[in-house]
Design a protein that fits this description.
Layout (H helix, E strand, L loop, with lengths): L7 E15 L14 E14 L2 E14 L2 E17 L3 H30 L12 H27 L27 E4 L4
Antiparallel strand pairs: 1-4, 2-3, 2-5, 3-4
Helix pairs in contact: 1-2
Length: 192
């Protein structure tokens, strides 16, 4: 009888894979009164880099606008190398889609806050995010999409009229992880 491999999750490395900051209206923006609206978009992805080893990348994009004018735009791809041993596919997908991004998020949040301040703007505090809830929501949406596609296939195969299926083009990422994990946060901040 084969022994079951012990479950192990090891964080090997955390690093910034890519980062950019743009302030197209600088320096004029610093001499005006603005009431910016910030929008946060995020996505995560995973790719195998070795046996039982995944690179998970959390990409955050923050745009601050005053009406239709962009005050600043910052994007970071925060990555980590994780070793996942002894987990089944469903557990691995959940770890890569929820646990790993939530581990990377504080690092990305700090880097964004620092670069915004260095860009001449007040500190930007991104709120905590419940990655477990986002992962479950993405899995439910994916399941609904798959059911819609199955219903459409059943409609076509039975000779009936084609039925509409709700799809948004998102394709599952590595190990079943939802590729379209996105959170949008709109905030009104006072700047200068």
């Amino acid at each position: 009888m084969a022994e079951q491999q012990a479950k192990q999750l090891i964080l090997q490395k955390i690093y910034i894979k890519d980062m950019s900051f743009e302030s197209p209206k600088a320096p004029a923006v610093f001499n005006t009164q603005v009431a910016p609206q910030t929008q946060l978009n995020m996505r995560s992805s995973a790719r195998e880099v070795g046996p039982d080893t995944q690179e998970v990348t959390l990409t955050l994009t923050v745009e601050a606008k005053d009406q239709d004018s962009t005050l600043f735009l910052v994007e970071i791809a925060q990555a980590g190398i994780f070793t996942l041993q002894g987990y089944n596919e469903q557990e691995r997908a959940m770890l890569m889609g929820s646990y790993c991004p939530s581990t990377l998020y504080p690092y990305a949040r700090e880097a964004i806050s620092d670069i915004v301040v260095k860009g001449g703007f007040p500190q930007l505090l991104l709120q905590p995010i419940n990655f477990d809830a986002l992962y479950m929501q993405a899995m439910q949406q994916r399941q609904q999409q798959q059911q819609g596609v199955q219903m459409q296939s059943a409609g076509l195969n039975s000779g009936g009229a084609p039925q509409a299926a709700a799809t948004n083009g998102d394709v599952a990422g590595a190990a079943g992880q939802p590729a379209g994990d996105q959170q949008t946060e709109n905030r009104s901040d006072e700047t200068h």
